[in-house]
Task: structure prediction
Amino acid sequence: MTLPADDEGLAAEFALGTLDATERAAVAARRQREPELDAAIDAWDARLAPLLEVVGGVSPPADLFARIEARLATPPPVVDLTRLLSAKLARWRALAGGAGALAAALAAALAFVVVSRPAGPHQFVAALQKSADDPAFAMTVDLDRLEFSVRPVAAQAPAGKSYELWMIAPNGATPKSLGVIAAGERRLAGDKANVRNATYAVTLEPEGGSPTGQPTSAPVFFGKLVPVGP
Amino acid sequence: MTASVSELANLLARVAKRDRAAFTLLYRATSPKLYGVVARILPSGEASEVLQEAYVKIWDRAADFDSTRGSPLAWMATIARNRALDEVRRARPISLEDMPEGFEPAADTEDPLASRDRSEVYQALLRCLGGLEADKREVILLAYYRGASREALAAKFNAPVGTVKTWLRRGLAQLKDCLS
Result:
């Protein structure tokens, strides 16, 4: 351990507990990104922990365990899709001239396969994918009728899980569930400009869809709409 | 508390796999000890709140427990003690007189002959603490067992805060040398 003497002292006092609130918070933040400081604090915790051997037991309040259990039962945390996607989207936009065009071409090719009726001016399609050449779902949207359908190209949900589709409006509002992915035409709701410019993302959820109404995992596939027609 | 180190490690491993029954057993086996640790630092209302948070954290982080780096009970008690310290530091300036009554730092009252059934690491630590000057030993023990701040220690020992800091740093450095 080649920690500066003052950091060694800080680590020792952090473990002992004598730092004031400000110093304590600063060291707690530093240990998250400084492995040597973190290791020094762990070492001090271990050095001092034998003192706990002689601490006598005190019975906690009888209802405490029930209160702890109630907190364990809280629903899974909501995943911020918008935040998770923003980095990917930024990269996507940066590649707009190359891979972006490729994605658009791919989406158009998919549209040819999946859109059964002639493409009107309000027909859009998105390839929901992990990378530019790996489409998993083809999504078609009729902006006039506000209808969409999603078909799997290559994806199959693992047993006991469902793929769920989300719409994330360009203003970065809370993701809106479009339901578990299933066959058939489905209704979309909302402002047409939002529907046109939204990002569509697919997450893997417990069978039947997210129990909370918000995503519980990071997106697996995502994409944006491109026009089908010329 | 009669659960052995290996029994507790086994329960923690099951808790890491989200086993609620194991969590119940773990709580029964360890909560008096952990409550004893936090109730020496905080009044009872806050102590039970902190104990709740500590067990939720133990549930969340059971998979992080590394048996090569210490005992399961020490790992859990350190989580509880750290939460108690966060709370006592954030809450307000506190003097030793304000602290929960009825608890004396255990090592002060420990009969050295009775320590034969304590672990070797505890006895080594006690020997090293015994080698410190009385003031340095006492500030370290009061801080560890009671969560005393530098200010509270300065008031109790009628010494400037800077002096208390020097006692703490030097005492801890000597302790490290002695233990290595």
Summary: The first strand of chain A starts at residue 123 and ends at 129. The helical segments of chain A are 5-16, 21-33, 35-48, 64-72, 81-94, 96-114, 192-197. The interface with chain B takes residues 8-9, 12-13, 16-21, 24, 42, 44-61, 64-65, 67-69, 71-72 of chain A (CB under 8 Å).
